[in-house]
């Protein structure tokens, strides 16, 4: 097996595993750019995965090939509404945002597992039969060398995630909405004096983070795990949070970090097909994403300055 063949295995797999992390990390960028810490990304992914799989299993016969797309949209809406719990606690009630996020994680997992037990009589759902199909991007997949590596044998949501990162960059840095979003995360009192409704902007940001995390969870469950159980989302939300920090709260940086973590996750699946990894014990490949996450956050990214008002509830009239 030559070097190009190895890349043909690694790169599509890395993009495939990175897609849920990209969606969720971009959601985290919205929330934290507005000044609200969102540790609950893991729980929001759990809700998205649960809703996506249940919708898929329930309506696959009626909607056919449209099912995974509709499941993704429903998961987006439900996770966005679920994130309101975090928004109300953090913004309106001024609760500790880290504690609120942890509560969201526990509530999401407990509630979804309880509903799975009620609906299916066991600890996990049935296997999803209708999922996303692999495609070759027209024209681009024919480009020599680059085409087979990046634009062949991939899933549409993976490409949507990458395009979305550039759209989010434009929205946050080139639009009035993005300017208001960043202002309430940096100096909410100054934003307030300019007539910006700080609470409303933060509510919108948290709900967007819920929507994108819900999409990430739905994609992960539909493409990768193919069912829902207690172990379907096992740290991916925290990896997305790490990707956001690794990317210094920047959409394109978060996407790059998510691709890096996606590559690490893919090693546990494709490692046995790569000659120089074939003899590495599988357990080492399984823990590689988490080890790399820790290493990335403890000295390999330089100084990462969070939004100045991150984690601080805003009380009108108080500095």
Automatic annotation (TrEMBL):
Keyword Transmembrane helix: yes
Domain of life: Bacteria
Record carries keyword Zinc-finger: no
Cellular localisation: Cell membrane
Membrane topology summary: Multi-pass membrane protein
GO molecular function: transmembrane transporter activity
Pfam families with a match to the protein in the record: BPD_transp_2
Major localization listed first in the record, in broad terms: membrane
Membrane-crossing residue ranges in chain numbering: 6-29, 36-57, 69-91, 98-120, 154-173, 203-222, 283-302
GO cellular component, one term: plasma membrane
Alphabetical keyword list: Cell membrane, Membrane, Transmembrane, Transmembrane helix
Record-linked PANTHER family: GUANOSINE ABC TRANSPORTER PERMEASE PROTEIN NUPQ, SUGAR ABC TRANSPORTER INTEGRAL MEMBRANE PROTEIN-RELATED
Protein name: Nucleoside ABC transporter membrane protein
Annotated source species: Thermolongibacillus altinsuensis
